[in-house]
Amino acid sequence: MSSLYELSDAYKCLRDMEEEIDGETLTEETYLNTLESIEEPLKDKANNIAKLIKKLTSDVEDKKEKIAAWQGSKKTDENKVAWLKRYLTQELDHAGIKKLETGDFILSPRNYKAATVVESLDLLPDEFKSTKVEVTPDKNEIYTALKAGNEVPGAHLEPNRGTTIK
Which residue, among 41, 18, 42, 40, has the nearest Cα to 30 in the 3D structure? Predict the structure, then answer.
């Protein structure tokens, strides 16, 4: 079985030969039979590739939805863990317990490095602020300039072709 590349190449070559139909070297009947023998496998290959594209596109959308659901679930679980840790520490501190041995764990409330909380960025002195500058290309402006025939160093337009699958 031929690949889509081979079939499309053969189809193009045959189409280029249309002008050579002269009745002697290449008859119209031979040309049409050959065209038909290439056209059907080409349609089948293209059809199968289009089916695969549709399936993969659907899979991508399903995965996006699953990722969003998992991220939401993950965030919920992270919040529960943080709350439960605070609750456990608070209650052990309240009871005055420095170390508690259970059947599975040894629990010891302890101090960690203090968390830095910024209440208002506006009230902070400049020495405690850092500025990040991100430079990004303005692709719309670049496109407009290039489309108008202007030269933009470091950029060019590239053909963007695709096939619509309905």
Answer: 18
Which is more confident, 35 or 69? 69
Do 113 and 101 meet the contact criterion of CB atoms below 8 Å apart?
no
Q: Distance of CA 42 to CAs 11, 13, 55, Å? A: 8, 14, 20
Q: Estimate to the nearest angstrom the gap between the alpha carbon of 108 and the chain centroid.
A: 44
Quote the CA–CA distance of 70 and 106 in Å, as a whole number.
31
What span, in angstroms and rounded, lies between the C-alpha atoms of 9 and 3?
10
H runs (alpha helix) in the chain: 4-16, 28-95, 139-147
Q: pTM, whole model, 2 decimals?
A: 0.57
Tokens coding 100: 């508690």
